[in-house]
Request: fold
Amino acid sequence: MGTSARRRTAGAPGRRTGVAVGQGIAALLAAAGLLVTAVPAAHAGTTPDAPVASGTTPGSGTDTPSLVTGLHEEVAATGSAADAARGHLRARKGRYHIADTSAQDLASLGTTTGKGGKETVRLQQKYKGVEVLGGQYVVRMTRKDGKRAVTGTSGNYFTGLKPATVTPKVSEKTAIERAVGAVSAQFGGGLLRAPGKGGKQAEADFKGTAGDVTILPQGTGVLTRHITVTGTSPADGSPVQQEVYIDAHSGFPVMQYSGIQTFGATTTATGATQGAAAPAGASTAAADQLVVKGSGVRYNGQKVDINLYKDTKGALQMIDYSKRAADSPYAGPMIATYDARGKEASSASGVWPSNIQTFRPATPELGEDYTDSGAVDAHWAAGKVYDYYKNHFDRDSLDGKDGFIYSLVGVVNNGMPYNNAFWDGTKMVYGQGGGDYRTFSADTDVVGHEMTHGVVQHTANLVYAGQSGAMNEALADYFGNAIDLEANGQSMDDPDAGLLGEDLCTTLGPRECALRDLNDGATTSKNFIGVTYGGDNGGVHLNSTIFSGALWDMRQDLGAELADQIVYRALSAYMTPLDGFTEGRAAVVAAAQELGATKAQLKIVKRSFDAHGIVPGWEKALGIDTDTLLPKVNIYSTGVGAGGGKYAVSRSDEEGGEPYSVWLGNTSGKGRPQLVSPNNGDYNVYATTDGRTVVWADFGANGINIMARPVKGGPAKVIDSIGSNVSGLVVDGDYVAYTAVNPQFGVTNVRYVNMKTGKIGLVDDGRPNNISGLASIKDGKIAYAKVAPNANGDMVLGVEVFDAATGARKQMPVDAGVMGVGQTAITDDGVFWIEDDDITDGGRAAVRRANADGSDAVTVTPEAGEGSLYAYTLTASDDAVTVTTAPPATWWANDTLMKLYQVAPDGKGGPQRMSCNRGEQAYGAADEGKRVLWLDGTTGSTDLVTRERPAGTC
Reply:
């Protein structure tokens, strides 16, 4: 996708690091895109169209069908709907193959009822009482005239699960430490940076909270500890809320994704918090007596009615009780809008900022301040969203149970405007505007979008990563836009009807301002972009308009009311957490059939998906210009190493259920790769090789072993052990170096091992304020980036070369005023490194080179002007330097993803694209000549690929 078909994301999060193109759950989380697999592996090869009657769509990798329609099979009319649903599954074991239908291992998530006696039961799969991530099955029934009948089922139930144990070996404490370490690495950025003069090195502000033990349904099941890590990104101050799954045997983080659902990038509260409860001591007998009628002016100049509340002290508050029944004034929905101006966005993600209260106007007529703050738009639009779901679908609030609706308006990011909005699982948070943007509640479709994330959470609960995350975004866009049109009286025929965020800009017109366009007419599955977690949570915004565009086309041709009913029914009664585009299409088609769509209308539904390329086999159209060495390696958060014509990489099995093992192969692609690490149940990661020795880290429950094995064969041996997180292994000759967390001082240091003598040391002596990392090695000389105090005590950046044989150190010529230094590479040509001299240039950084003694420094690629790059990391051979770029993602498009550029060691000729592949390119590893290997996401899976030379201009 080029910029002509862009998905702009104002205020998108900063670039993440340490994340492979994989997602770690091959057989089914591919559906969520957590493995960034184009077609959900759990359902690959199935038709996307649900059969008209008595139809069964089989699952793949499971014996339980993914969709059954056209049934009318009676079940017990008395008792709970959940018991009746379980009884149906039990009675038809030959169809569903669900062995345990007990309430313990097929737990009810709730039942929703609709018109005509419709009942929808959601059941959560558990294994010996442990929840299976995404294992959810839906049973649809009707109940009338004293009878109850099952009409269909759908979802993911995994029949192949049989984990060896459901008791974690890794302690909760260790799991939290590993999760926090993984998030710290991911958000650390590609460069080391120093604090201001007189300042101390900032520590990552992350906190881990243990959740339930969870089985990831890959292979026979991977037992994990689920840890939620919250805090603030050290790169840009943005809020962080990461869902991390730690393998319960080895302690390795096998999956990580963001829990923040942004407009431009857990359970909803059902009671009152933060002073937002129904008023104490009120003695009124009708709900409308709790409502004070006020008025305000929206950003667009429209004067609107605003419902307020007068508390027992006589103060007006922006709380709306008008949706409550007159005969039940103290129970029911409440809409409360909070003044969060000046509060940091990070303090509002998953938590509540301290000392926050609702907006409290002096009079019922809200003045200009309430317009400019975004309070009027947020409060008014929240009511419109509630009305839309109530009036069209008889849905009681976001959770379907009249749960309270909270909006926080006006948060900032590091004291500056936060041009974004998000749903954090309990509330909406809107950023304060500034510059080109208004406060993000200023557009009704933004409010509708964020609130719809709450509806999705309490229905299909689509996992917010990859394809399921893109569907989550697509549904939020679809309903957000539908609500916007209805609330503002805009016709579907309006040329701007498909725009989202078009009213957010202070100067630009709607079409220039819009972040997405559901009528762009260009977004099809051919535009699908395989993305790592380092970009857009696996493509949740990048790929969303493939699905939302199909839904919007359907709305234009079917009409708003029928289309909305079909999409809502598909969401609320068919979809389950790990559905991808294929399952999404099947759900919409089946919902249309259930709602009585005619043959002509069904043709429109299918044609809409066809037009956007969501058809059987669509993933096969994703082409590449690279040679694939290993397809679908199914790994997360570990990379690839190369040297001497050999590569080393971690790999799981086809289902992704096997702990990672290390494989060695020829970079030419000739011959078969061979297993070099033991299959010991640990995770063997961060593999690299110099062509003579393979080294890797073995993550176990009680610590991490650094392992080595000769390429020519022989036993693997432990060369070092450490209790803290490690990364960045490099090897050359007798020496191995890697970055490790120094538990004594809480910083990272480069540690080295002489495999011949057994000597172990630190390149920077490991003093309290010394920080080092991003190492490379050649002939016993270790280059690394560092932060250390100078003679005045100020923390200063630098690049240094340590001679492991003599202990001598050489400083590279890094200017005193440098803002950041990045990955090093040492070759026969000297030492290369990334250098950022200007943090105001949007993320561009130079590549520099000097001799190993620090002489003859040159600029390989400049920081500004022609040939400059968004240099993020690099790798080098004696013939070429390959730079991974990470452009700032203020809008998501193909050319904002990580890409590889190659340049001559002297910089002559300028950089060229290594590959024109559309997907994200990560973990570049130079071999001999100009050959480079990397992990590529273009095909939708994690593939190890290579090219012999640059592709040139793409």
